[in-house]
Amino acid sequence: MSSRHRRVTAVVGLSVILLAVVLAVLAWPYLQGVAIPKLSPFLAQVKPVPAKPEPQRPPLLAVRTAIEDGRVVVKLSDAERERMGVKTARLSPSAHRTEIQAYGTVLDIARITDLTNSYASAKAALLTAQARAEVSRSAYTRAKNLGQYATQVQVETAEGTFRTDEAALTAAQSQVRTLAATAQQEWGAVLGKAIVERAPSVTRLIERADFLVQVTLPPGETLKGEPGAAFAEVPPQSERVALRYVSAATRTDQRIQGLSYFYLVSGESGLLPGMSTLAFITSDKIANGVAVPESAVVHWQGGAWIYRAVGDDAFARHALKSDAAMADDCYVVADLDQPTEIVVIGPQAVLSEEVKTQSQATGDADDD
After folding, report:
1. Is the confidence at residue 66, as pLDDT, over 60?
2. Which residues neighbour 202 within 8 Å (Cβ) at sequence distance 6 or greater?
3. Is 50 exceeded by the pLDDT of residue 59?
4. pTM higher than 0.70 for the full model?
5. Measured distance CA(14)–CA(221) in Å, rounded
6. Which of 271, 282, 363, 272 has the alpha carbon at shortest distance from 326?
7. How far apart are CA 288 and CA 280, in angstroms?
8. Taking 70 as the threshold, does the pLDDT of residue 25 lie above it?
9. Rg (Cα) of the chain, in Å, rounded?
10. This protein's superkingdom (predicted)?
């Protein structure tokens, strides 16, 4: 029975296949002529969904930092430093005359102008009084020598005119002396004498070719002898301009209460009367160390730093003390006692390379 059952099943299967083939052959002309053309526009609008591209990883940056001896070291080749605008210089320690930071005020010289003009007028009045006194003296002398040929009235008139002119001469002389003393009291011996003589230095002040600057030291600071070279910073770029020493000032700045000095500055410096500025005076004190320019200093995390070489093409941060001495517009780094290669231009770029790794590595700055 099983053999017979298998034969029946085979016959049925074969019949189904043949029936399917016959139906396909009979339906093909209909599909080709009617169904396929109607479905073609719809099939054309259906676009295959593109496969999603795999996300690309950003290229890895070259690692320029390392932790060595507990500090972060930035490694930059010559080519990298040139591309980043970083320049270095080998600086040697030496002795430097330090600078004292002082406070300058550009003075209004209207009073000097008034004194100069007043003295010139008084001097002219004195010359006029002298001339009149000479003439009246001669007339009085002649009247007395005429004897009986001159009346008493003529003699008394001549004498009265002479005495009047003599008194006017005395008053003119007193006015000249008073103005000269006032000039010295207000502006000191040097400027006072220049006002009296109308020296070229005073003429340049009046013509605004130069300005007068009063520089006041911090309270408690003193200088031995005459101050050395001095400079003032011109806002807003803080560029330095040279100051020319005149004399000790006759008064102090009431806001600061320190010793004061008078200086001259060029009228083309950018400073104007009434402006306040920082000033730097060279003192007689000596500081030993490496002098680094201000362009080498970078400020970060509340401190000031420089970058110094700690190996071939390797640089580490070095702390700059808050009380570091100044000399020739440079900071004197006292704890560097050997010739050292310093990043003098572009320390911000080196700091940027170091900061990039702060989230990945931690380390202390150079504390040598």
Report:
1. yes
2. 112, 116, 191, 194, 195
3. no
4. no
5. 120
6. 282
7. 19
8. no
9. 48
10. Bacteria
Least confident of 17-26, 168-177, 218-227, 240-249: 17-26
Dihedral of the alpha carbons of 335, 337, 339, 344, in degrees to the nearest 10: 20
Q: Is the pLDDT of residue 51 over 60?
A: no
pLDDT at 315 over 60: yes
- Alpha carbon distance, N-terminus to C-terminus of the chain: 105
Q: How confident is residue 29, by pLDDT bands cut at 50, 70 and 90? A: low
Give the pair of three-digit tokens for residue 155.
């003699």
